[in-house]
Amino acid sequence: MEQSSFQDEQTVRHQFDSLCKLALKSEVINYEKHMAYRQKYEVMLSELSEKELSRLFIMEEHEMETHRFQVLGYDIEVKDALIAEALQTLTEKKRNVVLLSYFMDMSDADIAREMNLVRSTINEHRRRSLELMRKNMEESANEKK
User: Fold this and answer.
1) 31-78, pLDDT tens digit by residue?
2) Is residue 90 a contact partner of residue 132, using CB atoms and an 8 Å limit?
């Protein structure tokens, strides 16, 4: 009787192993189908071109009060009213140095070349301009309080 019970137990184990293998094979097939579907219909964002990326969203810009400054043929737009107000208090040379430096990302040497000045003069104009702007912006902020 022990032999029969051992054989029944072996049969049940083989049946269970067979069922597990069948389930795993089925899962592999489902996974491979899913991955094939994803590969066919999905693309990583990093693989999209600029044109394709731009179609995925809309950037809505509201009409904001902007201030425009003309500097050496460049049209520079300043969106922050407080900064624009502080820039308007500067002399034209100092304003031009700040705008070219911070809004056009030009180096001191490039600005000096464009304005026919010495590089150290540009550095000094920028330093003094920032001090004046800071002072004007602080005064403006204190007045609003």
Assistant:
1) 999 999 988 888 888 888 888 887 787 766 665 678 888 888 888 888
2) yes
For 90-126, what is each residue's pLDDT tens digit? 888 898 998 888 888 888 888 888 888 888 888 898 8
d(CA 95, CA 118): 17
pLDDT of residue 71: 83
Residues 6+ apart with CB under 8 A from 117: 111
Collapsing DSSP to helix, strand or coil, 50 comes out as: helix
Domain spans of the chain?
2-54, 67-144
CATH of domain 67-144: 1.10.10.10
Question: C-alpha distances in angstroms, 122 versus 11, 86, 106, 108, 144?
Answer: 91, 19, 11, 6, 33
Spatial contact of 96 and 121, defined as CB atoms under 8 Å apart? no
